[in-house]
Amino acid sequence: MANPLYDTLFGAHRGSGRPFLYLPGEDTLSYDGFLDIAARFAHALTTCGLGPGDRVAIQVEKSAKALALYAGAIQAGVIALPLNTAYTPAELAYFVENSGARLLVCDPAREVELAAMAAGFGARCETLGGDGLGSLNEIAGTMPATFATVDREADDLAAFLYTSGTTGRSKGAMLTQANLLSNAQTLVELWRFTDQDVLLHALPIFHTHGLFVATNVILAAGGAMILLPKFDLDQVIAALPQATSMMGVPTFYTRLLDDARFTPELTGHMRLFISGSAPLLADTHVQFEGRTGHRILERYGMTETNMNTSNPYEGERRAGTVGLPLPGVELKVTDPETGAELPRGEVGVIEVRGPNVFKGYWQMPEKTAAELRADGFFITGDLGQQAADGYVTIVGRAKDLIIAGGYNIYPKEIELVLDDQPGVLESAVIGVPHPDLGEAVVAVLVPEKGATLDLAQIEAAVGDALARFKHPRHYVLVPELPRNTMGKVQKNLLRETHGGLFAKG
Ligand code: MLC
Ligand code: AMP
């Protein structure tokens, strides 16, 4: 095949006459209509000077056109770099510079603040709004609806997804065509997706879950999606009767369970509910089954590896576990100190190897070497155990990471900003249990001797530097941080002390 990812996910549906996107309040978009738009975007990218292997940074609202831009990039052999719409200009500047993107596509409302930054890094800036309008759309609109698909090898890069790290510096995870394709095909089979499926899609499309799991799986199956701009309870409940399946982060399911309209009558026709990106409490799993009769299928993945494990479609969906390694994915649990494989049942770091595992971090060979072993095993940083019958349970994290509403937040990134503020001697950022988001960010600050902290100024500085979802929801002032004999801050003690901050009631 000339371009395995494009040909399989997109090109194969030319002439199928099937629907692809149901867009509430708008006309349904067929695969053919979608592929026409994608081809126009492929031309637009080429017209903007991008060729195979170049990067396009994309920070746009969720829409059919945004998905078509992703498809067009793959067709043109351009590496797509989707970015969270919450990122600040300061965060975006890092991504554009680090990736060497030749084009930044942003919302028309942000063009003024971003164009000069992009130009500073030699990148062009074009726009695409949530309504599908913008300068890139205007260029695309003048282009033909067919495009000669650019040849790509399975090992060529298809996308970069930036993921923060424990050092506070984001890394571009390089994903190949084969990474994305193999995972989508495995999941279609495992989860029994067909062209009769209609997936309720309320996730953002700038992360693995919404783009490479939800969208790619539906594309590989030739099914359709109800594309909602975001998770909105009323819209989700209104759309459920037309759907056969849904994917979401645990917050989606706890919010649905909190709503009296979420009944067995509303969900009786559904084939499948899937959860991932953050731990689904066993209690939520049980409550969900009690309410709807459906057992949520929980799976486990990450940016660098796409999906690693899943509970079975048929067979036991075991609450509190993330199921079994996917076909073709090897999983082992190792000693965090020595890297030696541990016997089944023991807790250690989860490592995975398979066609799903990324190629490394963009231009960061030392960081790649620290996490991706020479033998191909990726060290996930998640702590877990595998039972004798193969089921994997995640029990914690070796990495200092907070997951709020399915978004990863690395404390170091926030601590670096806080430590820079006037009067702050040092800081420790922790995640504490939160009834809606799973975890919420709390900043523990130690003022310099005699200093009075100006929290409004600190919040403003955090606001300039970091996306809203990373902002501490609460600040605590303490005279000193608890440390162990090695001088390391004992965040577990801070979590114990402040764990009840957001308790219900
Ligand atoms: C929004 N806010 C968040 C937040 N989402 N804060 C912390 N964590 C989040 N996840 C902020 C908003 O900016 C807003 O700020 C305030 O919280 C209230 O917003 P909201 O309207 O209540 O939030 P909502 O828009 O409903 O979003 C919550 C959410 C959303 C859970 C629906 O965050 C979401 O769709 N999450 C999915 C993330 C995801 O797709 N993760 C997959 C990563 S891939 P203000 O200004 O109002 O105070 C991955 C691999 C894998 O992990 O395995 O899948
Ligand atoms: P990201 O790097 O944003 O893709 O996030 C990946 C991380 O999310 C993993 O390393 C896990 O810590 C977490 N994660 C994903 N799925 C699950 C799950 N089902 N249960 C617990 N944690 C999960």
Q: Label the structural class.
A: alpha/beta
The helical percent reads: 25-40%
Global Rg: 23 Å
Task: Please count the beta strands (DSSP E, at least 2 residues each).
Answer: 25
Distance between the termini: 58 Å
The general outline is globular
How are the strands ordered across the major sheet? Answer: 2-1-10-9-11-12-13-14-15
User: Largest sheet, described in full?
Assistant: 9 strands, mixed
Contiguous helical run count = 16
- Distinct ligands, ions and cofactors found in the model: malonyl-coenzyme A, adenosine monophosphate
Mean pLDDT: 97
Strand content: 15-25%
Q: Are there runs of 5+ residues with pLDDT below 50, and where? A: none
Search tags:
single chain; 505 residues; alpha/beta; nine-stranded mixed sheet; four-stranded parallel sheet; 16 helices; 25 strands; 31% helix; globular; binds malonyl-coenzyme A; binds adenosine monophosphate
Walk me through what this model shows.
This protein is α/β, with parallel strands linked by helices and 505 residues long. It is 31% helix and 25% strand. It contains 16 helices and 25 strands. The strands form 6 sheets. It has a 9-stranded mixed sheet with strand order 2-1-10-9-11-12-13-14-15. A 4-stranded parallel sheet has the order 4-3-5-6, sandwiched between helices. β24, α15 (455-465) and β25 form a beta-alpha-beta unit. α10 crosses α12. The longest helix has 17 residues, at 31-47. The protein is globular, with a radius of gyration of 23 Å. It starts with a helix and ends in a 7-residue tail after the last helix. The mean pLDDT is 97. Residues 203-204, 207-210, 230-231, 249, 251, 276-277, 301-303, 404-407, 437, 468-469 line the site of malonyl-coenzyme A.
